[in-house]
Predict the structure.
Amino acid sequence: MIGVSSDSIDAHQKFVSSQKLPFILLSDSTGVARKLYGVPATFGLLPGRVTYVIDKQGIIRHIFSSQFAPEKHVDESLKIIQAL
């Protein structure tokens, strides 16, 4: 599992440390990854929140987009992963 956010590397390090995240969190402060994956901005201002389930062959198996229901990202992803 890899998380990607537009926050700075310093902000990520603090967040990972404080939350004890069990996965890698990458910084996309320039927005390159967002553009490549077509992640929309919410209301044209906020960076969108999208979860992609990508299998070992690199095939996107599921896309879930919701800025305001972050807990659903986990639930949706786990359902797909268990089904694979």
Summary: The longest strand covers residues 60-65. The helical segments are 9-19, 32-37, 70-83. The radius of gyration is 13 Å.
